């Protein structure tokens, strides 16, 4: 009876299978928390979703930017890139089932037993956990009422807001973008999406979001995120990055929340882009 967190699978179905065998995952007793970017870039996004769907309630998924891109493409709101490699999934006779399954996901997941909060990108710099809860609740309630297509239409037509404002819809967009995409922030805590490099290679005016966040705001939780293959699998006192760049030729990792032990399998391919 263990809970595992797995980072960016990115359509790497074979590696996912090997990893689940290696940890002896049992859908009756164990739980998987997926830190987002289940699909995109890798060769077998359809197979990843089809397999995970079979695990029912044993799987909790958090949305990543590539998962949102898939949904936006499905709704005709974003043009698919060849490097997404999601065309087969979207044309599948089961596409609507895959989309419905992916939409039953979260922007942030609290695992109280493991004292972790799982997001895909990160948490806006100044938000205490209480504010994170509030913003995620507003976002998820709005999606429940209006649907993902409604949210994605706004996300793909409005630029990235600087931060929270008095505008309710702008705040929903900011929350969704920040949680799924943040890497670097500037000295004012504003998200900068222009740089996608490893921490340490960014311009001097930017900082990894987790490096300058006041850990008191984490309220005792470790923040677990993926999204940053160039950072790689990292465990620190307050943060865990669980993206070890499988789709780029790195590893797919599972973090066991019982003892924070890490199980890795090596990638057997690289993405084309
Ligand atoms: Mn990502």
From TrEMBL:
What Pfam families is this protein classified in? Answer: Metallophos (PF00149)
The positions making up the signal sequence are none
What does the record list as GO biological process?
Answer: RNA decapping
Keywords in alphabetical order, please.
Answer: Hydrolase
Q: What is its EC number?
A: 3.6.1.41
Family per UniProt? Belongs to the Ap4A hydrolase family.
Report the protein name in the record.
bis(5'-nucleosyl)-tetraphosphatase (symmetrical)
Organism of derivation: Hahella chejuensis (strain KCTC 2396)
